[in-house]
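Friendly challenge for the regulars: who can give me the structure tokens for this chain first? No prize, just bragging rights.
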Amino acid sequence: MSTVINQAVVAPAATASEAPRPPWRLAFTIAAIALAFVTLVKWYQHTFSWTVGTDSFSPEFQVYWMRIFYAQIIGLPLLGAIGAAWLWLTRDRDIQNLPARDELARFYAMFSILVVAAIVLISALGLLTEADAAWHQVVVRDTDFTPTHIFLFYLGVPAGLGGLVMAWIWVHTRLPYFANRVSLPLSLAIIGFMMAGPVVAFNEWAHTFFYAEELFGAPVHWFFVLAGFFLVFLIGFVIQCVQRMYELTRGYSLEEVEREMGLTSR
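First reply, four minutes later:
Bragging rights claimed.
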């Protein structure tokens, strides 16, 4: 993703005569691919969670569910570590001398990715969380690794956390405004989302010992809401970015803006 943003989006904007623009085509292409993946996950879950997902002691459960679980808990941390290390090792060494036009283009690209992330997050939560509620209110679990949790907790949560961590590294190594400072709102949003990990562990333990499945609104679930509320800090991060973008756009003269928009002859 960093390569796509830096090369396919930022570099052309630095040399083109027109003003940088958000890469909407790229953003919506990524959104379409992500939504197709979420739909595939939902189809798989709906197709098999009621037929081979109710008995964890059956051989079919190991084939249809536990293999996916093992692949996720091994593959996602590995991919996240590789992505984070690559972003850090390929960071801009002379970030403070980045042209204003390129910096503005990177802000546009970042906001485009935020739109994609919001669409995917809402879709995933709407499909997977409600499916989890329906499954638990019907089936009495005999394992912590339920079919719905395997996708919700061990795919969605690690993928979201890995994406936020890589976003934090990209922001602080590709944007001059954040190169010598730490964005407190973005950091708080990530730290709050990280708390979903201990909450998942507590949730599984509580359900195993003393909480009935039909109580989907039980207090043991309240902590998920608290962890989600930390994403509100992203609003503060957006405000920081808008302030910087305002400073960058003020650097353009009215004549240059008119020329780039084709309002005057060149």
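DSSP finds eleven helices and no strands in the chain. The radius of gyration is 22 Å. Your move, everyone else.
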